Amino acid sequence: TKWKGLAGEVAGYDRDPEVRRIAAEIGLVDTVCDSLSDVVRDADLVMLCVPVGVMGAVAAEIAPHLKQGAILSDTGSVKQAVVEAVAPHVPQGVHFIPGHPLAGTEQSGPRSGFATLFVNRWWLLTPSETTDPQALAKLRAYLEGLEANVDTMDAPHHDITLAVTSHCPHLIAYTMVGVADHVRRVSHQEIIKYSASGFRDFTRIAASDPTMWRDVFLTNKEATLDILGRFAEELFVLQRAIRTGDGEMLHDYFTRTRAIRRGIIDAGQDTDAPDFGRVSKQAGE
Ligand SMILES: NC(=O)c1ccc[n+]([C@@H]2O[C@H](COP(=O)([O-])OP(=O)(O)OC[C@H]3O[C@@H](n4cnc5c(N)ncnc54)[C@H](O)[C@@H]3O)[C@@H](O)[C@H]2O)c1
Ligand SMILES: O=C(O)C(=O)C[C@]1(C(=O)O)C=C[C@@H](O)C=C1
Q1: Ligand 1, closest atom to CA 54?
Q2: Where does the Prephenate/arogenate dehydrogenase domain start and stop, copy by copy (predicted)?
Q3: Which end of the chain is more exposed for a tag (fewer CB within 10 A), N or C?
Q4: Is the CB of 154 under 6 A from ligand 2?
Q5: Whole-model pTM?
């Protein structure tokens, strides 16, 4: 926001005094406030950037201090649970428009952000039927000012989509790293020394913030369990193909998954891993 000069003043608050100290030190915001009530009092846009599990408690605390006409949004990775937790606290005359930037890394904390984090990344908004179109247009224009691509969808659809594209992949990465940790026949030293790049990618994801991801799974329970159920079924099919030596099945399956990867690259969404693009081009595709 500061990079693009999109706001007259950017104020921030975190309940952790160390986070507030660092934010002031690195100039993350113009003003570091000492309380939630102070930080929201005169704000035209309030962005809740806390773990999904505490969104409701924070909303309840700020509610009496929100300015009439203000836009209230959030960055939570799950949307339906945030709507349920936050909406009941939102006063008349305040526009609540939930959101989720599909941008981030395994790092968390005030030093992890950077000005161009949202450039050419999706920022999903989940307005309701009663959302004021002018407030929605204003928020969209602000996010586009950050050079994000904005799309809207309803909250349940967001949650099942992200269960597929983000939440379950994280759980699978956490699990694989956990498995490596528990395998007795391969030492920890060997795992570190011979870590192939696939496993290294998993360890990056599995280093993501435990509080954030605990809350994601506890609040997007139904969708993640649905997709994990399908994952388990397909895993059994692949296991059987390996056991029975069904090479044709494995080859067909991997050909289809490779096409998905190519689709992501062709859509210009592969901003993080240019190496992979290079590898597939070298393979003559
Ligand atoms: N990290 C990512 O890749 C990413 C990407 C998109 C969305 N998100 C979502 O954005 C939100 C924030 O994630 P993050 O990565 O910025 O986490 P973070 O850990 O960097 O920041 C969260 C902050 O919230 C503070 N906090 C916790 N409870 C609080 C409370 N009651 N009052 C005030 N502050 C409180 C913590 O002290 C912490 O500094 C989460 O809901 C997450 O799901 C994260
Ligand atoms: O690259 C990463 O570290 C991420 O996982 C970022 C990622 C994602 O799954 O794409 C993680 C969670 C957020 O809600 C949005 C973005």
Answers
A1: 31
A2: 1-272
A3: C
A4: no
A5: 0.92
